[in-house]
Amino acid sequence: MDFNDSPTEAAYREKARAWLAEAAVAHRAEHGEPKANTPEHMAAAKAWQARKAAAGYACITWPAAVGGGGGTPIESVIFGQEEGKAGVAYGYFTIGLGMCVPTVMAFSDTDTKKRFVSPAVKGEEIWCQLFSEPAGGSDVAALRTRAVRDGDEWVINGQKVWTTGAHYSDFGILLTRTDPDVPKHKGLTMFWIDMRDPAVECRPIHQMSGGREFNEVYFSDLRVKDSQRLGEVGQGWQVALVTLMNERLAVGGSAGPNYREVMELARALPGEDGPALSNDAFREKLADWFVASQGLKFTRFRTMTALSRGQTPGPESSIGKIISANQLQDLANTAVEMQGEYGILSGPEAAAGAAFQQSLMWAPGLRIAGGTDEILKNIIAERVLGLPGDVRVDKDVAFKDMPTGR
Amino acid sequence: MDFDYSDDQKFLKDEARKFLGGRCPPAVVRGVLDDPARSYDAPLWAAVAEQGWLGAAIPEEHGGLGLGRVELCAIAEELGRAVAPIPFASTVYILAEAVMAHGTAAQKAAILPRVAAGELIGALAVSEGPGALTPSALSARVEGGRLSGVKIPVTDGDVAHTAIVLAGEGGKPGLFLVDLTGPGVKRETLESLDPTRSVARLTFDGAAAERLGGAGEGFDLVQAILDRAAVLLAFEQLGGADRCLEMAKEYALGRYAFGRVIAGYQAIKHKLADMYVKNEVARSNAYYGAWALNDDAPELPTAAAAARIAASEAFWFAAKESVQVHGGMGFTWEVDCHLYYRRSRQLSLVAGSPRLWKERLVSELEKKNAA
């Protein structure tokens, strides 16, 4: 057991590091360090992606023929680590390159692939994923956005929700209902769409955290060509499963303060009897957070080990978000409560730049996004432990006859 | 990155599972559980010695196999899974490891070959009563190489040949090797939560005692010994926790209620998913502990604490919720759930409770943070 790279991995890391050192300096000289969510930030992100693609560091595991790096999964992980250390990582392309474009590659003709894959790899075009709806969150297959055939075209009406990056995306993959007369999973069809079409409208969602990072997307008589269909009519669910399978491979850490930050706060904070850090109840929690964080970190190492050995990683990475989201909520709340009455402040007077208050308000979203705690536990129970699925009363019912509630 | 058992280590672990499947089925565990006169299963102990496991990490010059600590972790995981009723931890994780780390050449030569051959059982005698033991409360004394005092409880103290005893000498706490078969030692077997692992009161009255490690270093040495043992115990706990999850799953898949298997209900599915999550956190922390132990890394105190805390939590949760999933059957003597429920308590308490380890962990983090 060790944490060292194999000789080939070490050589790759050295090469990547050398490239990153030079490229990051050149990139910063050209673009500076613009604020997030500005046009300048987006321009910098696209330039960085293009630079990576030219050097074979974008989509490292994809074949060079489509613009990828022709490398291995472990090389991709190593580059990601080094890129993070170099401080030049941007998140705009994750969903497109991680989920949407692989779906396009799997289900479209040669011309479509030729048109879209390379520009996406180079960061010229950004993609979003249009699945969730007000009536279909955990139960995505209950979605209602309707696509009706009209000659060689389809006319789409409906609404998506919680679409990350819809407002800056150029294209999207859209899951629609094409046949309400069959059970829900059987009447779905997938399309790619142009997000700049005037029949597509993005409205930001005002979240409970105060921010507006996600969107609702409305379709009013959006017309798409039948050639924009991905997979067969009625096979949309099978196509969506391919998209979601790719989601699993994104192994990431979670944002927000961790045990170190809350420990620093507790060290400086007066408690009833000495600093808050000397409080036994707090110390016990701190130990638990440390152990869970280490558990996640070393679970990622286990996944990397499997990749390094050329094996398929086990299911252990499925524990990540259940732990990190709940821990963030607990840690933030403890940090806030620890401050006594002062903890209610969330402005510039607040401790640690209000980081804990922000996390407290953000954590509920984290427990829901990308699979709720409850859905993730179902996934572990069914796919990892092999337990039976839930009773499904809607399995043999035509979609149009399903009870819908609000 | 190579953060998992190697192929050879996996092979060793598979072989250990097969071996224990044959030699240590629940009937063997119950043989010790149901017979107050038996403190451990002697045939299993002899068989384990024959396999070379007792000397797995002991150097070849002292009669062992000279394997690494990760191999020992793999064996520990399987022993935990089988709830093996033998004094393996006291002898191997504590006595042998302590002598290898802190013993003189003569002590190594006297003890290690006998451990490897299965001729010598060890024990660690620290506690003198309920709660934590502080230097000022320590009452066992050594004067002129003779030990007096009472130690309670001492795991495997009724069958051990050699104990490591914490006692004061000239007002300074030290560790002492004591031959429990010699004069001046009275031992009584005591009732405990886990009768498959025996516990004794040791009363010393002038027993011969030989110092292990430096004078006055007693408490530090105990901690150093427990840091090593904690990692190995964590693997036993992990093995037990994994088996509890399996048993709960198997039962839930075969038990019908309200017209379908109870494994299909979310209340059960989510409980088993929670077990899985805790077990994986424990496994990843245990692997890190194995690395730190094997490499004698400076991170060992933190890694051992994290491994112990995660494994204690995982085994306790899996053991108690496995009873729950089994329903009324789980509460009977005949079903094996309580073997694990008992062992989960024994393993959590034997080398300092999780609370103590949490405090130790945070103290280490404070030191690291201040540095």
Task: Quickly describe the structure.
The complex is a heterodimer of chains A (406) and B (371). With 406 residues, chain A is α+β, with helices and mostly antiparallel strands.
Write the layout of secondary structure elements.
The complex is a heterodimer of chains A (406) and B (371).
Chain A: H1 7-31, H2 39-54, H3 73-86, H4 94-107, H5 110-121, E1 127-130, E2 146-150, E3 153-164, E4 171-177, E5 188-194, E6 200-204, E7 214-225, E8 229-230, H6 236-248, H7 259-268, H8 280-308, H9 320-338, H10 355-366, H11 373-384
Parallel strand pairs in A: 1-4
Antiparallel strand pairs in A: 2-3, 3-7, 4-5, 5-8, 6-7
Helix pairs in contact in A: 1-3, 4-5, 4-6, 7-9, 8-9, 9-10
Chain B: H1 7-23, H2 26-33, H3 42-51, H4 69-81, H5 88-102, H6 105-116, E1 122-125, E2 141-143, E3 146-155, E4 162-169, E5 172-179, E6 185-190, E7 199-212, H7 218-254, E8 256-257, E9 260-261, H8 266-294, H9 300-330, H10 337-349, H11 354-370
Parallel strand pairs in B: 1-4
Antiparallel strand pairs in B: 2-3, 3-7, 4-5, 5-7, 6-7, 8-9
Describe the overall structure.
Chain B: Keywords: FAD, Flavoprotein, Oxidoreductase. Chain B: Residues 6-119 form the Acyl-CoA dehydrogenase/oxidase N-terminal domain. Chain B: Belongs to the acyl-CoA dehydrogenase family. Chain B: Its cofactor is FAD. The complex is a heterodimer of chains A (406) and B (371). Chain A has helices at residues 7-31, 39-54, 73-86, 94-107, 110-121, 236-248, 259-268, 280-308, 320-338, 355-366, 373-384; strands at residues 127-130, 146-150, 153-164, 171-177, 188-194, 200-204, 214-225, 229-230. With 406 residues, chain A is an alpha+beta fold. Chain A has a four-stranded mixed beta sheet. In chain A, strands 2-3-7-6 form a four-stranded antiparallel beta sheet, with no helix packed on it. Chain A is globular. Chain B is α+β, with helices and mostly antiparallel strands. The two termini of chain B are 28 Å apart. At the A-B interface, helix 7, helix 8 and helix 11 of A face helix 7, strand 9, helix 8, helix 9 and helix 11 of B.
